[in-house]
Design a protein that fits this description.
The N terminus is likely disordered. The protein contains 18 helices and no strands. Helix content is 72%, strand content 0%. The protein is globular.
Length: 376
Amino acid sequence: MDSIKSGSRIEFLDGLRGVAILLVILYHAYVRWPELIPFGNMFADFPLFAYGWLGVHLFFIISGVVIFMTLEKCHNFQEFILRRWLRLFPAMLMCSIVIFATAPLFPERPAGPVFYGDLLPGITFIESSWWAKLLGLHVKDIEGAFWSLYVEVKFYVIFGILYFGIGWRKAVAALFGLFCLSTIVFVLREIAPTLNTHLASKILSLVSAEYYGWFAAGALYYKYFREGKKALLLSAIAIAFTSALVAGTYNWQSTLSAILMVVFFTFSIKNTRVQAWLTHPSLLFLGFISYPLYLLHENIMVATIIKIGHQIPSAYAVFIPIFPIALVIGLGWIVASYVEPWTREKIRPSYKRLSILVGAARRVNSALSDKEIEKI
């Protein structure tokens, strides 16, 4: 708690990011594309691989914590949004360029070939379906993993406006309310398909409200960090468990896996031994590179698995993804260590001018350092 109160970086959150990105990578490498990868669905029943998609939901809880922390450091909504843009855009821009430039080398990409228009969704953080309707053209995402960034940005906008407009309590309640509404509409469509819920369903889907329970839970976990009130912790756990039940509606194994993830996250907050484990250098390293790694890993990794997989006997199938995973980890490290900081430095002047233009309340003459950026 002291580290959070003093505003310093929370190392075990970086470790949690490392766990989250590892789960996502293993899921995409071993399970997500059985019709494409040479070993098919051989690992579909292995829980660590099969439910790795929950790593994205773990990212959402972490975002609830981090975004609340960022909001408390900002003077207004404009400053908050600009800080998030400065945090997200450099890596997204450079990873998009890397993906676009290397796509011809990987014709096995699950997402298929890439065209110039496909760069728009990622670098604008606006989903491809919106761009397709706006331009009247076929626009798709160059990476399937980008979908969660669009959800995150919607959360930033809605929570940021509510936070500065009505205060944190009502803002968190509104997030949970939108999540509950989304769940109710979903249930109604299942049990009463003749009921006209189309408009409500469309609006809630547009803002991705079905994921807001995770963000609301993360926000309350953060307030518990700050204030140590048991009621806040219990509320966070209740919302997180509700989100887990909704996320695991496919089968009982999914539900159990989602619940175990919530238990793990809660223990990471309460238990110093778990926190110590999460600060292991390997997890901190993965946490450090998690954002660019998440952006660029899927298609390059899966295409490489397909390339080399046919040369290795199926008896050694579990080893086939090791090199492709190492490859994308290396790329993620290069972007996080060198490319992203360089890009951020180049856009700082534009960031300052934009800050002045929109009236963000901050000292624009002293740009944020890279260490400060890592905290937001």
